[in-house]
Specification:
With 169 residues, the chain is of the alpha+beta class. It contains 7 helices and 4 strands, in the order H-H-E-H-H-E-H-E-H-E-H. The structure holds flavin mononucleotide.
Length: 169
Amino acid sequence: MSTNDFYDRIVGLRALRSYRHDPISDEDLTLLLEAARWTGSSKNQQNWSFVVVDGDQKERLAGCGDYTIPVSEAPVAIALVEEPGGYEFDTGRVAQNIMLAADAIGIASCPITLHRDGDVATVLGLPEGARCRYAIAVGYPSDEAAPRRFGGRKPLSEVAYRNRHGDPV
Ligand SMILES: Cc1cc2nc3c(=O)[nH]c(=O)nc-3n(C[C@H](O)[C@H](O)[C@H](O)COP(=O)(O)O)c2cc1C
């Protein structure tokens, strides 16, 4: 079985929670937003928007979820907004594109759940019908190696089947 670097980066992608304090450069931020923008979506509707959050506003955003320390510690968080008609599946694809793009340019990232999306709407000033339940914390990685927090993954035999649920691939 042969792989290549790109495949290995996909399989090895980690949620990283330790960041240097320096801000993300405008060029790198643009690369992340471009990766988000070019994500495929249902019927190519692109019913999404991305709010770059930093400074005091980042602390307000962190207050909208229960496990948001990475938002506090990263220089920037990118809030993923589902505009009216948007699908959570599309938002998930955006999140993964941002994380893979970040990894490709040497930026650490962590997906974050914003459990109180009503509060997020107020903090970000979202228009009626728009919703934001997830953000990606991003920053240049600190030197400390981040231990894998919740272990590895279930074996393939527990998650992949052929033709009928439960039948082995
Ligand atoms: C939908 C989603 C929501 C997540 N929310 C949080 C969160 O609120 N806080 C956090 O620290 N990590 C969050 N994570 C990161 C997961 O904990 C992480 O991806 C998982 O533990 C696997 O870790 P690894 O990627 O380092 O193997 C979230 C991940 C996903 C996919």
